[in-house]
Amino acid sequence: MRLIRPAASLVTAAAIALALSNAPASAAGQGEWTQYRYAPTKNANVHAGQAVFTGAIPTANEVRATPVVADGTIFVGSHGTGELQAFDLATGALRWQAQAPNWVHSEMIHSGGTVFVGFGNRFAGDDGNRGTGASGVLALDADTGETLWRFDTPGEVMPTPVLVGGALYAVTGDKHLYTLDPATGAELKKVPLGHVVSMSSPAEESGILYFGSGTPEPYTFFAYDTAAGDFAWTRDFGEFNRGLDDVPPAVAEGVVVTTANTALPPDIVGTPMEEHTIVAMDSATGEVLWRDRLGAGPAPVNNRSGAPMIHDGMVFVGSPTTGTSYAYDLHTGQRLWNKYTGPVKAAPAASGGTVFFTTTTGEVLAMDAGTGELTGRLRLDGALVPAGPVVVDDTYLVIPSQSREVVITRIDAIPPASWGATGSLGSAGSLDNIGGYLGSAEGLVGSSS
After folding, report:
1. Which residue(s) pair with 86 in the sheet?
2. 91-106 residue pLDDT tens
3. Per-position b or e across 215-229, b if 16+ CB within 10 A of its CB
């Protein structure tokens, strides 16, 4: 671990600051965000209790990590170039910008006036680790972006770290679980995993961290007890050889849910094929409670996650392999519905009886949680992966995009829609036809990478 001086902030969002100069002043926000997608269920549904900007906020680069909404601020990290940005939730204006040493796929989790973020890339190193160049964890002042400390690791920290019990935990591409002091960045413990963790951000419930891993085979799922400082259980999945290390699991009501893939022979024209499977385990023992084959299809490029989310006793998940989204009973594994939505990698979000899926082709789909019926549809620029949407105050939807922006819309402004006669999606509403939606940020929408 080494301490570094903070890099100078870069102001690259002058356009949005000018466009929003007449917007109302920020109100105080609420809440902390201490793990991937806010809660162990992975339903990122947060309370802000303040005015919320609507429109498109330009970001420094592609957004592939869920924007963290906490304390009146939206915290966003950039893929590829590693810019770290904080925007005012009420105005959309840039508060500060800092720089990570490498890619940022980790969320900028927030607690006690500090944000913590992992950095690193997915490339294979000569030493057998995943991640080349700088990798590790940063802590920054949430108000100013000043770097407080930096902890370096031999492999990537693309999974989002977790704060629990006064310690910060990070799983890595160098096959370890690190425990760090959140105040200083000092290493408190280093636990060998024996497997690479690519993007399986741990889900924390009752002090237990749940996450999947990859190479070497057999792919293994872990439950780590932070209070005991040891594994509660581990489970090998010899049938999987793709994706378990990419999927952030979801946990609720004694059940932990994940997905994984199995490589199949190429199709007749040589396209690599995979089968995608959902698995539910007893969170206390790792016993498999139920599983279902989602289906086979072309192997997804890069991240393979079909990330699950749990809401109201149901599991919701989309598949980049089959192009279909699904709902299951959490405890019985009964498939309640499935709809062709196009490829989905990100965990969806839910509010009341509606679940929101975002696709690799830029679709935001509002669907009835109980039936899967399409109730609203919005078309945006750029792939909406692998990060999913965030619901704020059951009123707003925050949507990260690879088109270098974060879009915030009122949920009731999403154009109504229904499935076509053949079950197809048909035409989509877009930001351009939502009357009065953009307000002072009009003209900023439609930017692309």
Report:
1. 75, 96
2. 999 999 999 999 999 9
3. beeebbbbbbebeee
